[in-house]
Amino acid sequence: MPSNFKLIYYNLTGRGEPIRMLLTYGGVPFEDSRFEWDDWPKIKPTMPLGQVPVLEIDGKRYTQTIPLCRYLGRMLKLDGKDDMENLAIDSAVEILWDVLKVAYERNWETSDEKKKQLDAKLHTLSPLLLGKLEEDVKRNGGFIALNRITWADIVFLCSYEDMMNLVPEKDPFEGFANLRQLKNKLLENENLREYIKKRPVNKMMNRFSLISDL
Ligand SMILES: N[C@@H](CCC(=O)N[C@@H](CS)C(=O)NCC(=O)O)C(=O)O
Known EC number(s) (predicted)? Predict the structure, then answer.
């Protein structure tokens, strides 16, 4: 296993947080290199694709959130034991990502017209996709992809926090008791609890934080 990890990302949750939380859950020490929003123009040209998150592994830089999470999932033995199990994990993560992408898009949209369209899209998509995951959690004995914890559950925890933050007008998890229970179960993990208590406040998205659920 590599010995040196450094995550470069905004001082926000977003795409950086699942990587931070996976390393944290696995008890892997890492340098959490955060920068403020206003510093981004200076940092952008120094990043491999002009984007973040970037994970430095033993000094080499890697990009792309989901592949990085999948890699960490494998490293931490939070992956599937065969192709079908890995497909279930990938599929759950992609469902979470599909809802989140629309929620983020809506959040950053400045045109009233487009915001309204994204609003309608989100309020149709969110119950449908989260409803599917709710059924999956019920069937999987409390976990999102398989009958045991996988890296998809950690991605879920981060997605839960961001969704609660991005959709303040209506609790997106209302009526989804199994998803809520999963969130509570994950928050029993001591590594995650300590990390959540100590991490910097998300200044740009601070309507909700998991700290209120500890
Ligand atoms: N496919 C990449 C997308 C990365 C991405 O869009 N990062 C955003 C922040 S979440 C970014 O760097 N935006 C600033 C920019 O493109 O200038 C991934 O999943 O990691």
Answer: 2.5.1.18
